[in-house]
């Protein structure tokens, strides 16, 4: 699959990022998301593949594009038999977040990106639109920290694994009321806290790279984004665990489903019979081959945001593959029209 899709998945996230970046700082988060969805879907439908959205913009009634269950790619179209050989075609599942961190784009803040993960059919956990308790940590701590341990215990383990003092550790936590006690515990243990308003996929992945000054992600965020994070962390060898949160009283910010009981019933309907199970990265993204791609919309710890110049734009993307065991940073100049001056292609 890595060879079949190749460079094209990079272009998918690049086009979504460019479209969304045009709305950076304009206070229109819904439009920033909508244009990213449209651009991602348009480019995805030009790829020679048969894809199915397993994590997307929501149920079909609420999301006209990239909804859960939608089929994308040239080989899903009516005239597919003219260009696609069913015997040679690999069906793939796709998890997308065309604008991860819509508020970040709307208000010109760092950390937003266009992101997707793909695997062969059945290779990605079809997470419900619930919340998820998450723990991400560097490869050195893989299998040693544990989501069932307290933050204090995990910080001690993390410090030992990284040969640092706890005071040197930075933990990313989303700024939410539900995290008040967690934030205080991390601070009391001696570590530093980096609060973010949105966009925990970037924070999770940053744990796997040296030099980002991010050593762990803790707390509760959206479950679909947890699967996307897990795909990247599995390929990078980092630690990631996730546990579904189905009780509205825990998240304190609203949840799909009117009650804990209704949410449990929904999970049962989806075939999830152990709602309290802790999933590893290998379970959330368990396909034989997993690809992850992201492109910065606004600047982040891993990638620069979209930069426009006269007649074009420059993007920075990240592509991670379990098949080739690589993490590639891709710097791309997009020429919308013929540059009037050579300096348009200079480093910016």
Automatic annotation (TrEMBL):
Its EC number is 3.1.3.11, 3.1.3.37. This is D-fructose 1,6-bisphosphatase class 2/sedoheptulose 1,7-bisphosphatase. Pathway: Carbohydrate biosynthesis; Calvin cycle. Catalyzes the hydrolysis of fructose 1,6-bisphosphate (Fru 1,6-P2) and sedoheptulose 1,7-bisphosphate (Sed 1,7-P2) to fructose 6-phosphate and sedoheptulose 7-phosphate, respectively. Homotetramer. Belongs to the FBPase class 2 family. Mn(2+) 2 binds at residues 97, 100, 225. Mn(2+) 1 binds at residues 33, 57. Pfam families: FBPase_glpX. Its cofactor is Mn(2+). One of its GO terms (molecular function) is fructose 1,6-bisphosphate 1-phosphatase activity. Signal peptide: none annotated. Keywords: Calvin cycle, Carbohydrate metabolism, Hydrolase, Manganese, Metal-binding. The gene is glpX. PANTHER family: FRUCTOSE-1,6-BISPHOSPHATASE 1 CLASS 2-RELATED, FRUCTOSE-1,6-BISPHOSPHATASE CLASS 2. It comes from the Bacteria. One of its GO terms (biological process) is fructose 1,6-bisphosphate metabolic process. GO terms for cellular component: cytosol. InterPro entries: FBPase_class-2/SBPase.
């Amino acid at each position: 699959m890595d060879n079949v899709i190749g460079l094209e998945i990079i272009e998918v996230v690049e086009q979504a990022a460019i479209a969304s970046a045009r709305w950076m700082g304009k206070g229109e988060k819904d439009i920033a998301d909508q244009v990213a969805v449209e651009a991602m879907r348009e480019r995805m439908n030009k790829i020679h593949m048969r894809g199915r959205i397993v994590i997307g913009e929501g149920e079909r009634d609420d999301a006209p594009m990239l909804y859960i269950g939608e089929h994308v790619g040239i080989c899903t179209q009516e005239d597919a038999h003219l260009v696609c050989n069913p015997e040679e075609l690999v069906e793939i599942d796709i998890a997308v977040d065309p604008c991860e961190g819509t508020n970040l784009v709307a208000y010109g803040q760092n950390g937003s990106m266009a992101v997707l993960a793909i695997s062969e059919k059945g290779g990605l956990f079809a997470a419900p639109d619930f919340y998820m308790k998450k723990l991400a940590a560097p490869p050195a701590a893989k299998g040693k920290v544990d989501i069932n341990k307290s933050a204090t215990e995990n910080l001690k383990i993390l410090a030992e694994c990284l040969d640092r003092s706890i005071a040197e550790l930075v933990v990313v936590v989303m700024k939410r009321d539900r995290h008040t006690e967690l934030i205080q515990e991390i601070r009391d243990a001696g570590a530093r806290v980096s609060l973010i308003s949105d966009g925990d996929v970037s924070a999770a992945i940053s744990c796997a790279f040296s030099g980002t000054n991010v050593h762990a992600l803790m707390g509760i965020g959206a479950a679909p984004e947890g699967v996307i994070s897990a795909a990247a962390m599995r390929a990078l060898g980092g630690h990631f665990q996730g546990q579904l949160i189905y009780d509205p009283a825990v998240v304190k910010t609203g949840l799909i489903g009117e009650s804990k009981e209704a949410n449990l019933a929904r999970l049962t309907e989806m075939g999830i019979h152990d709602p309290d199970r802790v999933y590893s990265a290998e379970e959330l993204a368990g396909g034989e081959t997993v690809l992850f791609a992201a492109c910065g919309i606004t600047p982040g710890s891993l990638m620069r945001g979209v930069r426009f110049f006269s007649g074009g734009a420059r993007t920075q993307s990240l592509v991670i593959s379990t098949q080739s065991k690589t993490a590639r940073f891709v710097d791309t100049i997009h020429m919308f029209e013929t540059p009037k001056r050579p300096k348009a292609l200079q480093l910016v």
